[in-house]
Amino acid sequence: MGQNAPDFTVSDTLGNPVTLSSVLPAHRGVVLYFNMWCPVCDSDMSYMRDNIIHQNPDVLFFSVDYVSGSVAAARNAEVSNGYDGSGFVVLADINEAVLKLYNATMGTTVVIDKNGVIQMNQDFWAEKLQSVLAGLP
């Protein structure tokens, strides 16, 4: 934590390129949640959707799908798991580039402030996430 976040460009599930450094200035922060569509991931994401996202409208929440293998498959997973329109932007990390940049695994949650500094990089922990988001400038 306290390190500059590595920049990346990856497609969302609609095929639009998303570049971290381009989206940061318009938000108080960004959350990356590394998702493999398992029951644990669903539980974590459901909690964020129901309890955290709406309290932080100026924070952009990404679900990083690093397992589906294609944009189309990631889109199918997003829709079939009920996350279309959920408040998460699902990113299709086809070659696990973002996963590797952040040394992430299933459930890793990264918070990056608007200045591009990592404020959290650990397994999902709701109370910690809420505390870090509350402390963002």
Gross morphology is globular
SSE topology string: EEHEHEHEHEEH
Low-confidence stretches: none
The first-level CATH class is given as: Alpha Beta
Report the CATH superfamily: Glutaredoxin
Distance between the termini: 16 Å
Description:
The chain is of the alpha/beta class and 137 residues long. It has a single domain (9-114), classed as Glutaredoxin (3-Layer(aba) Sandwich). Helix content is 30%, strand content 28%. The chain has five helices and seven strands, in the order ββαβαβαβαββα. The chain has helices at residues 20-23, 39-51, 71-80, 97-101, 126-134, and strands at residues 9-12, 17-19, 29-35, 59-65, 88-92, 108-113, 118-123. A seven-stranded mixed sheet has the order 2-1-5-4-3-6-7. β1 and β2 (17-19) form a beta hairpin. The longest helix is centred in the first third of the chain and has 13 residues, at 39-51. The chain is globular, with a radius of gyration of 13 Å. The chain starts with 8 loop residues before the first strand and ends with a helix. The relative contact order is 0.25. The model has no long low-confidence stretch (mean pLDDT 97).
Question: How do you describe this structure in short?
Answer:
The protein is of the alpha/beta class and 137 residues long. The protein is 30% helix and 28% strand. It has a seven-stranded mixed beta sheet.
